[in-house]
């Protein structure tokens, strides 16, 4: 009686699972990565921005002094020029000192942290409000859409700076400067965030109007899924591309808004300096020769906003196939 050797048949499902590319491999094969590797401006901008983020996160480790600790501040060291000034510069203050005697390099590190925190938190707030309102307006349509969009139009008729100046000035006059200084960061996040939500709402609404007519939304309705689940689990993921582009630009706008308000005396207090308050505190000394107190933080702020806008332009081109040139 003869026996026949049978070769086991490979399982095609297991083979496909074993050969499934990882998340990193799929990302490396994506259009976004391909475009990034060819765009030197995007690479440089991302590198500089990550440098800002690292310096902000590790400011207590990198900074040689703590600008919030009064024991490390000596008023006799005020207005010292950068260390490359051979006549009056001090080697331990390589970017000089401000009018309070704080090391400017340490103060810029902590100020960058505050500016980035305000910008990112304000954008998260405005994105949350705008996405929710935009989803509801676009999906429900009709009277709900008209009411919400007219409310957005009214909000857009007031500039962010005008709303912020009125709200912050009234709050400071009503509750006092001391309480305002304690809540300055929270107030700036709330005011800037609430003032800019229509940008997200109008963009999301336009995307939802196009997405809700597609077959996968009809299939979700036939399956009996609720409106909230359809909006947030099915439609929202397909509208994230414009949100990423807007968010990059809006963080830069929020940082500029905070700097402008600080320059007007309605931003962060001098005891908790942001980049804007640093520029403001040194502006009155710029004509007396102590230019570094304003100019150096100003250059740091300009470079930060510039690289974020360049990243936003790159994302817009990559995520919009009509603008992609290959």
UniProtKB/TrEMBL annotation:
Protein's recorded name: Peptide/nickel transport system permease protein
PROSITE patterns for this protein: ABC_TM1
Domain annotation ABC transmembrane type-1: ranges: 112-312
CDD domains in alphabetical order: TM_PBP2
GO BP: any one term: transmembrane transport
One GO cellular component term: plasma membrane
Membrane topology reported for the UniProt record: Multi-pass membrane protein
Transmembrane segments: 44-63, 114-139, 151-173, 179-197, 235-256, 291-312
InterPro entries (UniProt xref): BP-dependent_transpt_permease, MetI-like, MetI-like_sf, OppC_N
Assigned keywords, A-Z: Cell membrane, Membrane, Transmembrane, Transmembrane helix, Transport
Family affiliation: Belongs to the binding-protein-dependent transport system permease family.
Keyword ATP-binding appears in the UniProt entry: no
Gene3D superfamilies, sorted: MetI-like
Subcellular location: Cell membrane
Domain of life: Bacteria
């Amino acid at each position: 009686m003869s026996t026949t050797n049978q070769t086991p048949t490979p399982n095609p499902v297991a083979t496909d699972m074993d050969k499934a590319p990882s998340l990193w491999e799929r990302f490396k094969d994506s259009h976004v990565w391909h475009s990034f590797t060819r765009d030197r401006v995007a690479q440089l901008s991302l590198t500089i921005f990550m440098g800002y983020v690292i310096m902000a996160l590790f400011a207590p480790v990198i900074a040689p002094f703590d600008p919030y600790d009064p024991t490390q501040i000596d008023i006799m060291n005020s207005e010292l020029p950068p260390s490359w000034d051979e006549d009056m510069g001090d080697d331990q203050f390589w970017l000089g000192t401000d009018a309070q005697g704080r090391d400017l390099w340490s103060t810029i590190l902590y100020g960058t942290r505050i500016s980035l925190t305000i910008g990112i938190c304000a954008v998260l707030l405005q994105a949350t409000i705008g996405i929710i309102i935009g989803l509801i307006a676009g999906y429900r349509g009709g009277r709900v859409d008209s009411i919400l969009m007219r409310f957005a139009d009214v909000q857009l008729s007031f500039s962010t700076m005008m709303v912020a100046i009125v709200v912050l000035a009234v709050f400071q006059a009503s509750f006092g400067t001391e309480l305002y200084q304690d809540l300055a960061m929270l107030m700036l996040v709330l005011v800037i965030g609430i003032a800019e939500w229509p940008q997200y709402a109008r963009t999301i609404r336009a995307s939802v109007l196009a997405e809700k007519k597609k077959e996968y939304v009809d299939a979700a309705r036939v399956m009996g899924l609720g409106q909230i689940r359809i909006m947030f689990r099915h439609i929202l993921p397909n509208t994230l591309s414009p949100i990423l582009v807007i968010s990059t630009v809006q963080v830069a706008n929020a940082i500029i808004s905070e700097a402008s308000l600080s320059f007007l005396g309605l931003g962060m207090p001098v005891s908790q300096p942001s980049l804007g308050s640093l520029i403001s505190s040194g502006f009155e000394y710029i004509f007396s020769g102590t230019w570094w107190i304003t100019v150096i933080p100003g250059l740091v702020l300009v470079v930060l906003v510039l690289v974020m806008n360049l990243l936003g332009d790159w994302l817009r081109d990559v995520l919009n196939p009509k603008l992609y040139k290959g």
